[in-house]
Amino acid sequence: MTTTRRGAAVLTGVGRRRGIAAAIALGLAEDGWDLVLPTWTPYDRRLGIGGGADEVVAIAAAARDAGAAVTLVEADLAAVDAAETVFAAAAAADRLGPVRALVLSHSESVDSGILDTTVAAWDRHFAVNARAAWLLVKRFAEGLPDAPSTAVTGRIVALTSDHTAFNLPYGSSKGALDRLVRAAAVELGPRGIRANLVNPGPIDTGWMDDAIREACVAETPAGRLGTPSDTADLVRFLLSDAGGWISGQLLHSNGGFHVG
């Protein structure tokens, strides 16, 4: 059976096969989306928990096997011109449909608190997690029709977090992302663009130790950690025809983490 092509989705954050973005990429490929994957391998090397160019190539190959046209583009999202780089690569790509979706799964995430965060770390977190997100949303919307529409013309999904203490620049910049996406739902909604946030809760993509795993499971009524596929399933729904009436929401896909 041939899958109906849905256009292209720009998906940030693909770097590791264990990562959430990798699961989203493969799920969207199966659903008929072509993919533009901005990557930045120096970040994966800096974190030291896997990833890199070989894994990105493998993820792209698996998405192509699922029927997607895939374009890889190296882009440091801390750079002011990164959004233009990404969308120029999309425009130049062969076999790629029009960009109809933007999924923001990237982040700068280096732990620090009020007393030990540096100005440089603060600025980079906000450049990557907030400013780059704004510029990508802006460039995405500029590529869609600007006339009023009651039909769904485009979709934005951003992955967020409720981290605060001891992860100050990350949590603060994710808070800015939340406001940005909700603003997009209001400002761009009359043009047919749906914008939502997904908080995946604790998912072990290589950063947890045993103590963190045990603590997170203990606070999750569902009795297990989330998986990248759990998050990908919700993103796939939001990008599906069935998800077209949902907008302006922050959705928790976390097995009940911290509910009690």
UniProtKB/TrEMBL annotation:
Keywords: Oxidoreductase
Domain of life: Bacteria
Protein name as it appears in the record: SDR family oxidoreductase
SUPFAM superfamilies for the chain: NAD(P)-binding Rossmann-fold domains
Family note: Belongs to the short-chain dehydrogenases/reductases (SDR) family.
A GO molecular-function annotation: oxidoreductase activity, acting on CH-OH group of donors
Keyword DNA-binding annotated: no
Classification lineage: Bacteria, Bacillati, Actinomycetota, Actinomycetes, Micrococcales
Gene3D superfamilies: NAD(P)-binding Rossmann-like Domain
Pfam families (alphabetical): adh_short_C2
Originating species: Amnibacterium setariae
